[in-house]
Amino acid sequence: MPEVPEVEALREFLDGHLVGKEVARVLPLSINVLKTYDPPLTALEGATVSGIERHGKWLDIVAGDSGLHLVIHLARAGWLRWKDEFPATPPRPGKGPLALRTVLTGGDGFDLTEAGTTKRLAVHLVRCPFEVPAVASLGPDPLDESFDRDALAALLAGERRQLKGALRDQRLIAGIGNAYSDEILHAAKMSPFKPVQNLTDDEITVLHDAMRTTLNSAIERSRGVAAGRLKAEKKSGLRVHGRAGETCPVCGDTIRSVAFADSSLQYCPTCQTGGKPLADRRTSRFLK
């Protein structure tokens, strides 16, 4: 799933490719992709893109002259693919991964695609991005200048859950998902199952530093990368997430995994849990 670094890189890419251009048409090609009906997508025809904003993992394409916002969440398997030109034959709705096509008057534009059978990619056309409930409920952005160590401490005060879950909660902190929460906790040398209420003042400082360093480093790696190559760039830069069975680049231990119903986390026992493997929910019942 695209998280803060990839969505920020997409925002920068679109800022250079989309701003100042006129929308010719927007075509929804999947029955599930469009989540709003008023205003209709035809209201964007002839509008000029005035800016690209980001709200956590959400992209916000602003059509300034119309006062409209095309707000996009790429979900787990969605992506944005820039096209310098499109085929002459219009696409057929409901065929393949293509979910939505935006064509500019110059003939270029972008496609939104989504792999797999579970369709969660979401597009909203609204007059204000905060009309989208998930955007309105977002916590602060971890890259915002105001998000300092004390701001993080204030957010975590009173939390009674594990650190991994807290970092992934979009209502607490916007934009961090499964991959970068693993990377942040590895950099901070903290267990994903550590209770938030047990963090010391020094550990909160370490966690904040790891968060900012990890996310900013990922953005720097992604900056200037073409939209179509950002997924590969993300994967190449991850140290522990998605690398179960490989060697930890810090200590040389084997990276382990814990699986859940619809996701998994990865960590290094030596770096993060005092050398003790965490129980994997899939296999721990066989070890009793």
Automatic annotation (TrEMBL):
Single GO molecular function: 8-oxo-7,8-dihydroguanine DNA N-glycosylase activity
Catalytic activity: Hydrolysis of DNA containing ring-opened 7-methylguanine residues, releasing 2,6-diamino-4-hydroxy-5-(N-methyl)formamidopyrimidine
Pfam families reported in the protein's UniProt record: Fapy_DNA_glyco (PF01149), H2TH (PF06831), zf-FPG_IleRS (PF06827)
Cofactor(s) named in the record: Zn(2+)
The entry's keywords: DNA damage, DNA repair, DNA-binding, Endonuclease, Glycosidase, Hydrolase, Lyase, Metal-binding, Multifunctional enzyme, Nuclease, Zinc, Zinc-finger
InterPro entries linked: FPG_cat, FPG_N, H2TH_FPG, Ribosomal_uS13-like_H2TH, Znf_DNA_glyclase/AP_lyase, Znf_FPG/IleRS
Residue span, FPG-type domain: 239-273
Record's keyword annotation contains DNA-binding: yes
Annotated PROSITE patterns: FPG_CAT (PS51068), ZF_FPG_2 (PS51066)
Claim: Zinc-finger is one of the keywords in the record: yes
Residues spanning the signal sequence: none
Annotated GO biological process: base-excision repair
CDD domains, A to Z: BaFpgNei_N_1
Entries under Gene3D superfamilies matching the protein: 1.10.8.50, MutM-like, N-terminal
Residue span, Formamidopyrimidine-DNA glycosylase catalytic domain: 2-95
UniProt similarity note: Belongs to the FPG family.
Classification via PANTHER family: FORMAMIDOPYRIMIDINE-DNA GLYCOSYLASE
Name listed for the protein in its UniProt record: Endonuclease VIII
Organism: Streptomyces niveus (Streptomyces spheroides)
